[in-house]
Amino acid sequence: MSNPIPYGRQNITEEDIQVVIETLKSDYLTQGPKIVEFEKAFASYVGSEYAVAVSNGTAALHLCAMALNVQEGDKVITTPITFAASANCVRYCGGELVFADIDPETYLLDINKVRKLLEASPKETYKGIIPVDFAGRAVDLEAFRDLAVEHGLWMIEDSCHAPGGYFKDSKEQKQLCGNGNFADLAIFSFHPVKHIASGEGGMITTNDMALYDKLLMLRTHGITKNVEMFKNSIEFAVGTSSQLTEVDIMSRGDETYPAWYMEMQELGYNYRLTDFQAALGTSQLKRADKGLVKRKKIAETYFQAFLNKDFVKGQSGVVEGHAYHLYVLEVKNRLELYNYLRENNIYAQIHYIPCHLMPYYRQFGWIEGDMPNAEKYYQNCISLPMYPTLTTEEQHFVINTIINFYKYNEGNY
Description:
The protein is α/β, with parallel strands linked by helices. It has 2 domains: 5-221 and 269-285, 3-Layer(aba) Sandwich (Aspartate Aminotransferase, domain 2); 288-408, Aspartate Aminotransferase, domain 1 (Alpha-Beta Complex), CATH 3.90.1150.10. It is built from 14 helices and 17 strands. It has helices spanning 14-24, 33-46, 57-67, 85-92, 111-119, 141-150, 209-219, 234-238, 275-285, 288-306, 334-343, 359-362, 372-380, 392-408; strands at 5-6, 50-54, 75-78, 96-99, 126-130, 154-158, 166-168, 174-176, 185-189, 202-206, 223-224, 249-252, 255-258, 263-264, 327-330, 346-347, 381-384. It has a 7-stranded mixed sheet, with helices on both faces. Strands 1-16 form a two-stranded parallel ribbon. Helix 2 packs parallel to helix 9 (275-285) and helix 3 crosses helix 7. The longest helix is centred in the C-terminal third of the chain and has 19 residues, at 288-306. It starts with a strand and ends in a 5-residue tail after the last helix. 44% of the residues are buried.
């Protein structure tokens, strides 16, 4: 193969390009109608009541932690196998991360490890849990919700890998990631390698109106123009202005505020998404389901190709409800394979270096051996190319390159 094959890639169509051009020619580049259009479409897609578009997935996580009032010293549990942002959002607010190990079969946060942590500590030791739908596999949020309720915890679902992914609840009902039925808040990313690409971008979904209103304020400097939330007096707002006319006012019952008036009520951030990014996201969302179908087909091909191969840890087959952002194998001679693939223009990736062993988190006392399942997984994991425009020829080239590597190195692993 002469062209590089990355582990992930965006797919920008002519329709995507046209909607961006139309938005660039419109009156609004930011804070315009495309934002609300994208939010409503995305909320409908995942089945949540509300959605808030933001500048990226990290911003989404930060705003969630702020909206849930994470304070200095608050302890929050998450997985070590995730991108650092899942943990960092708690640190931004001064909270303390406590990692719990993964299930070695699913690579997801192990609920039994979390339960042991909670039961080994006095009530109110922990404030929340951040499960991650790693690689696109959906966490059983019903089980985590029950555990969270039992211990009085909030829950943020990190669904950056899993738009369109789902699990089945105890009634065998399909529960989409981010639908708001179980987690207080869920977040998504629209980075180019994700299912839906808007360049950069993120989304927060929830069924809680109070959290929704707070997120809207925090997203824009802590400022609100919602007249129902104003705290300053009418006299202050009006100042020395003359009689207000109907076109100049915002009404709250018998009270009227001038149309220019707004209030900064929180210390927020500028975490807004632009209208042209929102337009691209809305266009991409329209074909998200087709992308899922293709991803599952690619996953099935990989599964069949590596079934019963002695250089691969046993696989469980294509998983129902898995959104397949990544296709991860645990392999022998991982470093040598990684380098061999790069020599053949195949740019596989490693997801992830365990968060607790990053130098930043080591300063809090985390050491090797604390998360044995996560650490063992990291020693062998590799993410193969996985994106809807991956051709059959390209995928077979990836498969054959891997098989040939182990064939030629037989006896050395």
